[in-house]
Amino acid sequence: MTRTALLVMDLQQAIVGRVPGLDADFTPRLARAVAAARTAGVPVVHVVVGFRPGRPEAKSSPLFGALPEGAFTDGDPGAEIHPDVAPRPGEAVVTKKRVSAFAGSDLELVLRGEGVDHLVLAGLATSGVVLSTVRQAADLDYRLTVLADGCADRDAEVHRVLTEKVFPHQGEVTAVDAWIAGLG
């Protein structure tokens, strides 16, 4: 029996604010997906970037080590999950230390504990957390669905290539509204 979870990845204030050209309907569209998942009893897992004070785990990373001091630590308002998709009490919030949702996190333990074998992915950015998570999840034998309009990237062409040419080889690619329609 398939058990699905919706992963909402890197929808943090600082990240949402750094994706140029993000359409005004992006976070409301994801909010619809989150609401539909909750109604259907599909677990919603929020995946965020986070570091402890002093960010020792970020220093060896060319990407994360270049961030300003205090970025994505407790108290950083940019680390907050966007209010349109904020977690409800009881929903898992998984903190990762690298690009993939699995890297430096307990995501796999959370998913296995819930009996999840099908992941529905949404997040920022398509060429970052979504791509890295798709690859790692496929290697871990999860069934995958990517919500193409629930992802975005700084480069629209990269987003298009990934959602139209790369991700379909790993799993299903669909739109938020089509996924929601299939829940009922």
Number of extended strands: 6
Number of spatially distinct domains:
1
CATH class: Alpha Beta
What is the H level of CATH, i.e. the homologous superfamily? Isochorismatase-like
Order of helices and strands: EHHEEHEHEHEH
CATH architectural grouping? 3-Layer(aba) Sandwich
Over the alpha carbons, how many angstroms does the gyration radius reach? 15 Å
Which structural class do you get from the secondary structure elements? alpha/beta
**Estimated helix fraction:** 25-40%
The averaged pLDDT comes out at 95
CATH topology tier name: Rossmann fold
Give a quick account of the main beta sheet: strands, pairing sense, barrel closure. Answer: 6 strands, parallel
How much of the sequence is in beta strands? 15-25%
Principal-axes geometry comes out as globular
> Total helix count?
6
Placed side by side, the strands forming the largest sheet appear as 3-2-1-4-5-6
CA(first)-CA(last) distance: 17 Å
Low-confidence sequence ranges: none
Organism: Streptomyces similanensis
Pfam families: Isochorismatase
InterPro entries: Isochorismatase-like_dom, Isochorismatase-like_hydrls, Isochorismatase-like_sf
Protein name: Isochorismatase-like domain-containing protein
